Amino acid sequence: MPSVLPGCTPAKAVPTLVGEQHSSPSWKCINKQSALAPLIQPGDLIALKRLTSWRAYIPGDAVCVVITPEHKLLRKVSVTQSDDQSIAFIQMVDGNPVESKIPKNLILNIYKVVGVYRQQ
Fold it and tell me: Residue 45 and residue 32: Cα distance in Å, rounded?
């Protein structure tokens, strides 16, 4: 199965993951962003599962990788959503949470982070 997520590989075997229980992750990636540090650090292995119904419903507070035509972004979904045309996300900037919106028509896919593995 070819990788359709740049920098990621199909998740055939994922080591024991810390945090949320995961169910059959689709992809595994090495995180290179600091957008959600200290929760997820650069160098952490993240296990991802594709969300199929994100246009209709996306769980607030979920940590996701958002795929747009030009970007692959690690973000946390905001608990409050103010409109149906975009999705509000949170990232950390200089240790402070900053909310931004991405229009749904720019989003190609969303993958939920279902586990994080930090090598010691």
Answer: 10
Ranking 20-29, 77-86, 88-97 by mean pLDDT, the lowest is 20-29
DSSP classification of residue 18: B
Cα–chain center distance at 69? 16
Indicate if the pLDDT at residue 48 is higher than 60: yes
Who's near 110: CB < 8 A, 6+ residues apart? 50, 51, 54, 58, 64, 65, 66, 67
Q: Give the number of other Cβ atoms within 10 Å of residue 23's Cβ.
A: 9
Is the full-model pTM beyond 0.85? no
Matching residue, tokens 């593995």: 117
